[in-house]
Amino acid sequence: MAEATASRSVFELPGLRQLFLLVGLSGAIAAGLWLVFWSQGQNFATLYSQLSERETAQVVDALQAAGIPHKLDGPSGTVRVPEPQLREARMKLAQQGLPQSDALGVEMIQKDNGFGTSQFMETARYQLAIETELARTIVKVQGVQGARVHLALPHQSAFVRDKRHATASVMLQLYAGRRLEPGQVTAIAHLVASSVPDLETKDITVVDQNGTLLSSPDGNDSLAISAKQLEYTRSVEDGYTRRIEQLLTPLVGAGRVRAGVTADIDYTVTEQSSENYDPQKQVVRSEQTANEQRMAGDIAMGIPGALSNQPPQTSPAPPAARQQPAATPPQPVATNNRATRNFEIDRTVSHVMQPTGIIKRLSVAVILDNKQVAGADGKASSEALTDKEVERYTGLVREAVGFDEKRGDHVEVINASFSTSVPAGETVAEEPWYANPMFKQLGRQGVAVLAVLVLALVVLRPIMKTLLAPPRHALARLDGGGGGDLARDKVTLSGGGGQPGLPNYEQHVAAARSVITQDPKRAAAVVKEWVTADG
Hints:
- The chain has helices spanning 2-11, 14-40, 53-66, 86-95, 106-110, 119-139, 182-195, 222-252, 319-322, 387-401, 437-468, 472-483, 505-518, 520-533; strands at residues 44-48, 71-73, 78-82, 144-152, 166-174, 199-208, 257-266, 270-294, 334-354, 358-368, 371-374, 380-383, 410-415.
- By secondary structure, the chain is α+β, with helices and mostly antiparallel strands.
- Strands 1-3-2 form a 3-stranded antiparallel beta sheet, with helices on one face. Strands 4-5-6 form a 3-stranded mixed beta sheet.
- Helix 2 (14-40) runs antiparallel to helix 11, helix 12 runs antiparallel to helix 14 (520-533) and helix 13 (505-518) packs across helix 14.
- The longest helix has 32 residues, at 437-468.
- The chain starts with a helix and ends with a helix.
């Protein structure tokens, strides 16, 4: 009881009373302002962290150009944006290829390191600059978030026999959900090979952040060939699958058809050479004939020698002999005939190389969902397809894939109800209303308004009442100056009559006027004491 009396007496002191009242009033106003600002503010989410100063400046410039609010945390290199605009900010930065690596490229060479730099350090700096510049260029490729390039440049010897080629490896950091096409990987390899002397494309290895080998250094390697064959098979199967779904979707409805195709493709490389002869087809290629005859007078007779080989000299015949009839011409003594014929037999030479990637067999499986039929009440109901409809769809699928019974193709079309489909008469569950960002913002503002009202009613109202209430000791001294039992009276601001038997407001005012009129000095002393007590 004594402690309560002492504390009440301390708080009733004029100076402490005003101090505590002012502190409480200031705290209440500050809390109200904080609630108002909190309700109007936005939640900021981390856009990027652990950024260098250069990267931070680039990101901030891009956000300012896009008109997106942001906050910076300098020591940690963290950039924050409003949570509703987080995805938009990342898309804007991704379009500009930000953030980029802050490694030095050619700028490193431009720095002056002074005297005393060894040739080894100069070579290392030059190689690092080339690697950095190549990484900056590769980052410009769509889908690449970051890149690192490692070059192995051997020291070249003066002897051609000891010459070694350079090699390189490229590490790519791809954006989430993105992958590079084979053509893009090949382009990156050619880019690096064209930038480094004595570097060939087959000596470049490209991998991603998951450790997947993207490049194929040796195109003739068995593993690379198998990968290409598998990729070609998947592309053929996907092509047939899309063709079937595009054909049946307008008939059965979107999302009511599932197709799968398995292609057996022959990649065997076959070469055949043949040379055929046809003895029935003979053609004369060349023919040579020789005919030789010897007469009796042409034969040499007598002693062998030069004279014996000459023909005898004939003298002119006498006139009598000229008139005689001519004798019978001499007959050949020897005849020799020779003939040579060359025949060519028909020959056919052929070299045949069978094409690879021929489809040996196709297996097609198609599932069709039940059709939706409107009932008498207007509601849709699920109904199975008839055998005739299934047969009609089977014929369409066969025509779409180029069905060939001779090579053993098989097509299977069945009808079944999809378990993932929405039941008839039901709708897809929408996002709950309380998950809407607009509702979250309105909820924050409502909570802030309610907190301000509670603060005003619970804290500010009692404080204002206490500040407006007159001090008790002043009323007591005013009553001691001629007001009778004025200190025990209660003043009502309503102007109406107070409690029965007690003076009302007009009576108190009349009593105070009479005291001031009768004793002005005492009234002035009371007012002076009030001013002194209030500080």
